[in-house]
Amino acid sequence: MLPIRLDKRLAELLGCPRGEARRYIEGGWVRVDGQVVEQPQAAVTTEQIDLDPAARDERAERVSMLLAKPPGMPADALCAQITPETQSPLDASGTRPLQRHFHGLQLAASLPAADSGLVVISQDPLILSHLQQQLSRTEQEFLVDVQGERALWDVARLQAGLKENGRTIPGCKISWQSEQRLRFAGKGLHPRMLREACAGASMQVVGIRRLRIGRVSLGKLAAGHWRYLGADERF
Question: Domain RNA-binding S4 spans what residues (predicted)?
Fold first, then answer.
């Protein structure tokens, strides 16, 4: 028997349009000799082809992932960190991982290599565009670990030092989480600004971790692990 495309063979078996067969395959609903195959162009001959009884005829949506960036990992290595092996066991999104989810990923909200915490990686052009254009207008939350001579620390100078283009950032909330850990929450914040403000208040920054972007939080994700952005989550 001559090889034939999987989508053509499936369409013949199901008696359905080829476009519908292609969507089943791309959705991860088709097995060839017991193995899921997501490529409609895959060549088949006499293999056993099965459609999952739970199969739905729907287009595979572009996905976004939330990664707990470890400290020291550069931006150009973050997308490669998104693999089936590093998906968090805490992922409760209900999204079924597909091979296509791990292609065409782009970094939407990065962090400097030295810092850690929440970064966003996505295939979705709407998410990418929103975060690339609106991140500075979105509230973010950071934890900053500091050290140095406490007698010299000046929180008033710290607040005044949160500046962008010479103008103080309004509305930022600063609170102590422990003797050497500060919490910052506000719009327009970024790690460079936090470092400069802490230096101006006689504090030496040891580490910065981003906990939240808008209404989306890091939660209990372990460093180096990721989860899907839930359908009901909005930045």
Answer: 4-60
Tell how far CA 61 is from the center of its chain.
15
CB–CB of 210/117 below 8 Å?
yes
Return the H-helix or E-strand segment holding 180.
Answer: none
**Whether residues 14 and 130 fall in one domain:** no
Give yes or no: residues 77 and 129 share one domain. yes
Tell me whether residue 57 is in a domain.
no
CB contact set of 55 (below 8 Å; sequence gap of 6+):
24, 27, 29, 30
DSSP string for 39-98? -TT-EESS--EEE-TT----PPPP-EEEEEEPTT--GGGTGGG--GGGB-TT--S-PPP-
221 in a structural domain: yes
Please state the domain count of the chain. 3
List the beta bridge partners of residue 85. none
CATH number assigned to the domain comprising residue 196: 3.30.70.1560
State the DSSP string of 131-174: HHHHGGGSEEEEEEEEES-GGG--HHHHHHT-EETTEEPTT-EE
Query: How much is the average pLDDT of 86-90?
Result: 96
Longest CA–CA span in the chain (Å) reads 83
Identity of the residue numbered 76: D
Q: What is the mean pLDDT of residues 147-160?
A: 88
Print the domain residue range for 30.
4-51
pTM attached to this predicted model: 0.81
**Two tokens at 119?**
């970064």
Rg (CA), the chain: 23
